[in-house]
Amino acid sequence: MGEIWKIPAKETIVNTGDEWLFDLLVTLAEEDRVKVLMIIWRNWQLRNDAMHDKTVPSVAVTSGFLQSYMLSLDQIKHDKGYDMLKGKRDLNPVGGGAQLRQEKRSQEHAPWPPPLEGWIALSLDGSFDAESHMAGAAMLARNSRGEHILSACWFIPHCSSAFEAECMAAREGVSLAVQHSTLPMVI
């Protein structure tokens, strides 16, 4: 990926202790930081595939996947005809090249139903690994305009089930949201 994206050379990455990744990310421009995080996310995904005896794609396929994913995220960010529900974009061949065709999206296709004005929406998720009995959880709070209010993720070292991971995500997520906002919330 270093040939395609501007990412730090491995020789420049220094182990500064437990916070080494944060120390690295803080030195990068936002776009480069996102790309480094995408590579880490994809590596973890491939690691999970290998752990569960799934076929791991080649470096070229992974590179293409990451580039396509970043393009999709950029199109969503700039609302360039991307249909978030289907995960597809419209192409309109014009003059020998493919160009995005702008289309108005109807309200009924809104990917996220916002809460009422003056409320916050709390999204929660738990993830469980039955083999190691470890889990993780995350939460995201947004206002009625979809603006980020609060987000967090955490590691759960001992967990007995996916249900427990989801319950812990709900408990901790609601607790954090209540600590940081006095607004009513919908989960």
Automatic annotation (TrEMBL):
Database matches in InterPro entries: RNase_H-like_EbsB-rel, RNaseH-like_sf, RNaseH_domain
One Pfam family from the record: RVT_3
Domain RNase H type-1, first and last residues per copy: 125-184
Gene Ontology molecular function: nucleic acid binding; RNA-DNA hybrid ribonuclease activity
Recorded superkingdom: Eukaryota
SUPFAM superfamilies noted in UniProt: Ribonuclease H-like (SSF53098)
Protein name as it appears in the record: RNase H type-1 domain-containing protein
Organism: Triticum turgidum subsp. durum (Durum wheat)
